[in-house]
Amino acid sequence: xxxxxxxIVVTGPSNVIERQISGDAEVIDATGRVVLxxxxxxxxxxxxxxxxxxxxxxxxxxxxxxxxxxxxxxxRSTVRKTRAATEDQLLAHAIKHAEWFIRCGTTTVEAKxxxxxxxxxxxxxxxxxxxxxKETPVEFVPTFLGAHAIPExxxxxxxxxxxxxxxxxxxxxxxxxxxxxxxxxCEHGYFDVQTSRKILSExxxxxxxxxxxxxxxxxxxxxxxxxxLGAVTADHLEQTEAPGIAAMKRAGVQPVLLPGSVYSxxxxxYPHAREMIEAGLAVVIATDFNPGSSxxxxxxxVLSLAATQMKMALAEGVTAATINAAYSLKRGxxxxxxxxxxxxxxxxxxxxxxxxxxxxxxxPQTHSVYVRGERVF
Length: 377
Ligand code: NIG
Ligand code: FE
Description:
Blueprint: E1 2-4, E2 7-10, H1 14-18, E3 34-37, E4 39-41, H2 53-60, H3 65-70, H4 75-84, H5 87-103, E5 106-112, H6 119-135, E6 139-147, H7 158-175, E7 181-186, H8 193-205, E8 209-210, E9 213-214, H9 222-229, E10 233-236, H10 242-251, E11 254-257, H11 259-264, H12 273-278, E12 284-285, H13 299-310, H14 314-321, H15 323-328, E13 346-349, H16 356-359, E14 366-371, E15 374-375
Residues 43, 45, 213, 288, 290 line the site of fe (iii) ion.
């Protein structure tokens, strides 16, 4: 692979490449190692304060995610801490997460808001995402998730919160160009299909791409709504059955599967990856990195779960974690594969066969990581 100015010039056999280089070229010797495109993590919530390790222990003792949320924990507990944090504090915390992503071989990460749930706090999170792009080598792709939960202060008037999202948050975020995508947690007890449709239609009007948390805990027709609205992705899909899969195929919606959240919540109902692949869908896998349901930044772990729990072939897993993910972030022409003209974003792993990444799960295998030709790990 010959690189120049942060981009890939040509790929091919060493003897062909060697004929094209000048004497002062720097050589990266990858002998005995695997070289892959930097992972593209197309679903993550990396900006938040605190953690939820206490809830993790409660689940270890038998409580469920839904019970903890009903008791005032869950998303709302992270919202309380995130509101209390300053922009600088959130940035410092998120820089640590960015370092984790890089160490795992991930060079592009989607970043959702959704732990502010007020005009100023949602904007605060998206400003942190903007600063992360300046202060870390990771490329973060901002998504507005104001409709992540009804905040405590609007419990008795959820409709007023929906109006706040539509009439105040969306216009400001669109005007300040703080987000490329808009997402909604379409779920029983959070935002139903009608409300999700209203919010996402408005976001579409304002030129934003649409992603959705769909059919995670219950099947409420989320995949069908994603298809109806022409969403770029429908994510989670643990409860999605054949009609939802067919609707996504008709509309060209990409499924984003998040097995880390099923695993970490101690559940067993993984999404039907095989049916989706057989239907011809360009499946994406992602970490869903967040403090509640999926506290892992590791695409290596996700590859392992894809193989063992969703019966995805290792090559399908890598495809889902790189090029398919890149297209779902509208960056398929720039990242996600090692081809001439693309950014030189890649990682070297200490193994001789890419399948060992998922096989030796939990073993750190990242040797080095490059973003636009510069070594960042
Ligand atoms: O993708 N489902 C909604 N959002 C996150 C969980 C967020 C949280 O628990 O803090 C998810 O699983
Ligand atoms: Fe999520």
